[in-house]
Amino acid sequence: MSRFLSHLKQHPYWLAAILPVLIMLGYYIGCHVYPFGNSSLLTVDLGQQYIDFYSYFRQTILGHPDQFLYSFNKALGGDMLGVFAYYLMSPFNFILLFFPKSMLDTGIVALTLLKYGSAGLTMCYYLKKRGLTGWWLPALSISYALSGWMLANQLNIMWLDAVIFLPLVCAALDSIDHHPLRYSLLLALTLIVNYYMGYMICLFLIGYFGFTLVRDWTSVKHGFKRIGQFIWSSLLGGALSAWLLLPTFFQLTQSKGTYTVTKVHWKFEYQPLKILSKFITGSFNFDQMPSGYPNIFVGSVALILAILYFTNKHFSWQERLFSLLWSGFLTISMMFEPLDLLWHGMQFPVWYPYRFSFVVTFWLIMLAGRQLTRMDDGIAIWQLVLLLVVIIGICGYVLVNLDSFGFLTPTQLVITGSAMMLTLIFLSVNSDQSHITPLILFFLLFAEMTLNVVFTLNQLSYVSHSDYHTYTESLRAAAAKIPSSDQDFYRVGKTVLRTKNDAMQIGYNGTDQFNSMFEPAVPAFYGKIGQPAGDGFVAYTSGTLISDALLDIKYWISPRTDGDPLLQHAFLPTVASRPDLNLYTKRGQTSNLTLHQNPYALGIGFVASQNILKTRLFSDAPLANQEMMLNALTGQKAYSVLFSNVALSAPKTKGVSAAKATTGTTYTKKPIAKTATVTYTFKATTNDPYYLTLGSSFTDNLVSLTLNGEAVPIYDTFRDTVVLNVTPKQLNQTQKLTFTLNKSSAWFKDVALYRLDQAAATAEINQLAANPLVVTHHNAHSLSGTVNVRENNQLLMTTIPKAKGWTVTVDGKVVKPRTTVGLFMAVKLAKGQHKVQFTYWPPMLNLGLLISGIAALLTGLISVMSYRPGRHSYHRATRKS
């Protein structure tokens, strides 16, 4: 046994890399994660967003490289370079290419395990470079790889690369005197892989460099020289990554950056002592995701050693003072709003607070490792007393306030307290001659971090493998029914939705999107035509005949109406009722879904009246906006009313009390009522589509709605008045719209019913369809075609969102496109036949490429000039001997 342990001890890199993987793999097997059962790692944003981006990554690499720049999968179309920079630049993503598209959730498991192992490996590399040896190397590496931050952010898989690269960058910074280019290259790679977390690493490196400067101080001259090396090497690293950073920065100004906080509150965000709760094993649950405390758990061994560092007189008082000040700055950053905002680029995180706290886990473990390099036999009595006070203080405070920490139980507190006391005991009897203490503490830390995995990850629920797989494959099969002969540009809509990025998962031009790098103009437009929208997302769930036509939604996918509905709908979440799809042509069906073709789809571009340039859309008037758009596009001399108001009866209520106001009525559940309903009735006298509008107050599952007892889905999140299709099946009969309150009260704002004059609307749509843009070529970032303009004062109207980066040529000459309804590109054209081309190239990409190119040449020149053949030959001869 001793020989086996000795052999393991001599291979710390293997232990540091493999042990975190084995722990996590064991947990996944125990939780029946596929292929060991029917569970998965898909939860929250990983299941609702990132996995679809990874599918898009596979498509881009395996056959559609043009998607790297732009995509019409991103709602109606949008820049993708910024999306890649935020989500998809990790080199680890290439492992997903070895998994079929139908098994992407299994690929996510492999990717996650690889990142856990890599985090342990790079931390081991750093600690070994700093002089640590023996069992302490894998012990502290596991502490880093399975820290509270790593586990809490397992689902934010693209951020884990920052944890992997941070030790490498810091190790390179340590040797900047001798290898400045190594630091520059690693810093550039870190920024390219994930600029967002890379920004946080850059802030941390300022403090870390200050620590190294004090730690390695020899003279003022050397200090200034080192400062100069740090500045120019950092600038070189930034320049090498400019090809991605500059266009990404521009996209931030168009999307995420528009939400930057301009007013800062000089306050603490929570009572500071509450951060002590995060030193307890498994200090995490679901409620900590939207708003919680920093995840900084690193295990009892690392924490106690980090505290001991400040009492170690082997280190200069200047070094320990600087470390104390920087530790204080990091601590205050995790609770003081201005500093919290600084670390997050002046934006409050939407969920996952204190994302930068991974640098704190690194800092604590770094201090623990430094303590171990210069630790005397055992610890002094005064140190023992100090640590006892700290341990009692932490555990005592948490115990007294345990009811305030819903993510902790007495069992977790006992485990942590026991681990801390055992650590204290074994450190007290440690000696330089004893090899057993590090081994014992290694196993203690191994056990504590394993329990941390169990307690932390058991707090989350996950999408089952079968739900994910069955839905995506069913949708893929339905999309495959689109005729391969249809080479025109078109979009696809659907009444089912697993995620708002389904189009990226399957690979078709869709209508929905959930994306942090999302241009605000698109959600603004969706809201004005009655579709669910918010900061960073849109969902086209309740289109009308008019909006379907204008947005070129040529194909529609919906559940089959025959067969067993319970069997079909179990894995097909329906988000819209579209009885008007019966007006479209059925083109095919699978065992679960039906494909319809919209005969009124207008294509990506068509000739229209210049009146659309003067059209301004209103808030909370979605049907009026659609009516105005169609009137303006067709150039109607006399305004054509397409949506007429249909009278609703006075509401009949059950189990509610009513309070009327000028802007609507608020209905409140009566205390003893089992159900609370508000019912309207109306009569349908034509076969035309009927649409119901609901105000923004109906969001968040406020009510459930039925039409004659059949459910009418309401998408659960929106901020504007939305449109629902409530076309009845039978005419001239009383129709009942019943709202059931799901919460204590509901404000009935903007509740109104309208009938679309189908004949008039389709006549105007057909007028526009007579002069289409005939697309001759299109890919992810360019589109060209011909168009025949038959009258003066016309323009080519497109539903391509206008953005800087588009170049438009007409008959070979560059023209400046106009913006219509706050979103789309339109091009004024003279009478006659024209060739039109649209090409997208990300703004500032050329400048970024130029800067990175110059930086790369400079790097190569420095590398050549610093190369010394004699020195390298000597090293090779030394290794041979």
From TrEMBL:
* InterPro entries assigned to the protein according to its UniProt record, in alphabetical order: Uncharacterised_YfhO
What are the record keywords, sorted?
A: Membrane, Transmembrane, Transmembrane helix
- One Pfam family in the UniProt entry: YfhO
Transmembrane regions listed in the UniProt entry: 12-30, 80-99, 134-152, 196-218, 230-250, 292-310, 322-339, 351-368, 380-399, 405-427, 439-457, 844-867
Name this protein carries in UniProt: Integral membrane protein
